[in-house]
Amino acid sequence: MHVGIIGGGVAGLAAAYQLTKTGHTAEVFEQAPFLGGQASTFDVFGGRLERGYHHLFVSDTDITDLIHEIGLGGQLAWLESSVGFYLKDQGGTDSGGAGKIWDFATPLDLLRFKPISLRDRLTVGFWTLILQKTRNYRKFENITAKDWLTRRMGRRAYEVVWEPLLRGKFGAFYDKISMTWIWGKINLRVASRGKGGGRERLGYPMGSFGEVIDVVADKIAGQGGVVHTSATVNRIVETGGRATTLEVQLAGSETERREYDAIIATTPSYVFTRLAPAMPKEYQDKLEGIDYLSAVLMVLVLDRPFTNKYWLNIADPDMPFVALIEHTNLIDPKLYGGKHILYISNYPSRDSSLYKMPADELMDLFVPHLRKINPDFDRSWVIEHHHHRVDGAQPIVGVGYAQGIPDHRTPLKGLYLANTTQIYPEDRGTNYSVRMGNLVARMVMDDAGTP
Ligand SMILES: Cc1cc2nc3c(=O)[nH]c(=O)nc-3n(C[C@H](O)[C@H](O)[C@H](O)COP(=O)(O)OP(=O)(O)OC[C@H]3O[C@@H](n4cnc5c(N)ncnc54)[C@H](O)[C@@H]3O)c2cc1C
Q1: Residue 190 and residue 122 share a domain
Q2: Reported pTM
Q3: Over the stretch 378-394, which tens digit does the pLDDT of each residue have?
Q4: Parent domain of 112
Q5: Is residue 168 part of a domain?
């Protein structure tokens, strides 16, 4: 079989790797000048760094298996992470609006978390344990996280601990999110704590996710596939009841048509609807029914550490960011010439002012807030800053989400869809894009009756 693949992110490359490994040919078209999509990297002081922070959980077995299979297992490190919770000034103190960073990595940290009463802390601990033990996520599908958490853990615990997390990831949609999403997060994180509920371990390929992606692309080429960058698919063309023709434009070339036995599209749904022929209404409604948020990231390269935490949740609605991820509190700064890397992250919608704001204005906005978290911080610590926007970064997982997921097999013969809206009940992540790429590649082969 000859399969055309739209998108050179993790899902597209995983599918191409599977197909070519099985003796088929695959041709990948990636519109950006680099591979990796949301997990792509750029160069920082001699090291490669993801545009958006990236790590793996212990439960991420599909990508871990792939990393071993392609010979990079020796590069995969599992490192102890440190998690903090920055809580807005609770009033009544003369703190000048500065809040406090609480350790938030272990069950003991929860017991010491004074902003909620001891009774609330015990209740949160109890229900978190129940969520960890629960396998049947279906019971959470039709209730919002807000309602479930408020009912079980109490209003104060919800407002202090959970609401900032939901607002952080989903902005204005925070009270629409299904409880399944929280269930998924708790299951993944806890698996990464190992036995005894100790500190979380997170995985990172020390040559970066970019190295994993490059090696997979090399393997695809070695197995007879072709991977193009700066190659845009403009249209999927339907002929004779099959949607297996692509209108593509390679760098510096005219638009041309290429024929395949099957096509796998890995773009976000709102891009797919622009490329593909009209679909029957029921399928089209599913494609259009799931919204996404974008990610806005500012990566600061600093001459010294900002905090001692890898992951800092920001529970202060007045701050223009929702998490600070200090990459070099997980990974040795030596990889980046001894510099320290801090991601400032937010998930706004594409029409928000934050999404549209240019880098220097964002810096002006962020700096005073950074100073509230670390009063010593000075802009002179910043050696350089990098601004990235990632569209389609986070599908919004509402109540009853499962019923709205479009099938991988589209109603058009030969055309398959594999994007992050179809990852469920887990939250999207590179592991699940690998799993989905493998699954859809197998589907294509099964449908064609090939081994
Ligand atoms: C800020 C951030 C942090 C994250 N952190 C983590 C983490 O810690 N751990 C983790 O595992 N995952 C993380 N993720 C999620 C993970 O990166 C994604 O789930 C995964 O990379 C998605 O891969 P994909 O191939 O499904 O989609 P994408 O990466 O979106 O790939 C789709 C590709 O299609 C291309 N494309 C679109 N239109 C066209 C066209 N017309 N022609 C050709 N090409 C086209 C795009 O350029 C893109 O490269 C994070 C994501 C973000 C945004």
Answers
A1: yes
A2: 0.95
A3: 999 999 999 999 999 99
A4: 106-198
A5: yes
Answer whether residue 334 is part of any domain: no
Pick the closest to residue 328 from 294, 304, 354 (CA basis). 304
84 lines ligand 1 (CB under 6 A): no
Ligand 1 centroid–CA 99 distance in Å is: 34
Does the C-beta of 223 come closer than 6 Å to ligand 1?
no
Q: pLDDT tens for residues 314-332?
A: 988 889 999 999 999 999 9
Tell whether ligand 1 has an atom less than 6 A from the beta carbon of residue 276. Answer: no
Predicted confidence (pLDDT) at residue 197 exceeds the cutoff of 70: no
Q: pLDDT tens digits for 123-179?
A: 999 999 999 889 899 999 999 999 999 999 999 999 999 998 898 889 889 999 999
- Number of domains within the chain: 2
Report whether residue 233 contacts ligand 1, using a CB cutoff of 6 Å. yes
276 within 8 A of 415, measured Cβ to Cβ: yes
Distance 350 CA to ligand 1 centre (A): 16
Report yes or no on 152 lying in a domain: yes
How far apart are the CA of 405 and the centre of ligand 1, in A?
A: 18
Within 8 A by CB and 6+ apart from 23, the residues are none
Q: Which of 203-212, 272-281, 313-322 has the lowest mean pLDDT?
A: 313-322
Q: What is the CATH number of the domain that holds 132?
A: 1.10.3110
Query: Cβ(39)–Cβ(9) under 8 Å?
Result: yes
